[in-house]
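Q: Convert this sequence to structure tokens.
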Amino acid sequence: MRLLKVAFAIAVLFVNLLIAQPSWADKPKFSKNPDYIEVTKTIKELKKSAEGTIPANVQRQIDELEFQKAAIESGIAWGQCRNETGGNLAIYGNAGEESEESENSNQLYFLANGQTTPDQWDCQGVYLPSDVKVAGLDKTGAVAIRIMDGTQLLVKKNPDTSELELNIPNAKVVKPSDQDWFIPNVSQAFVDSRIPNTLTSGDNG
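A:
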């Protein structure tokens, strides 16, 4: 009888181990995340360049980067984009299996006005045509804005100036020659003519 109870207890323990997530399960490998590596490196460089007393504007950059670093450490390995521009917004997402023949690590998608990319769908940045003006951004041609994991990017149009406004400070600009992002030279009118093909937070599936 005693052996039966022991066997039953062992069986219950085994089932619990199979069903419940172990408390010692590995945490997300954020230390290998490219964004995490970049943020950590930039923080170190800013602190090193300050040499002693850190100016207020540099300290603000460090604080913002520390905040981004904490967001990545929390396990959020994706970015989110919202479009309030009044037209289509071209955004970058992981090409994955959808574009095995593509030479670029990510692909352009089109997000309709008033829409937000869903949770877990990694919006990596936005494309800004050459004929679009962006507040606080001096650009002479088409560029892309890259966002880090854990970032909610809002792009909206200022009704008074018609300029686009980004809710992130110190936007990281990606130029055609910088890395393997597809940055074509097309107009906003062309972007607006595309059929939106991004699942949004209000879509099913």
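The radius of gyration is 22 Å.
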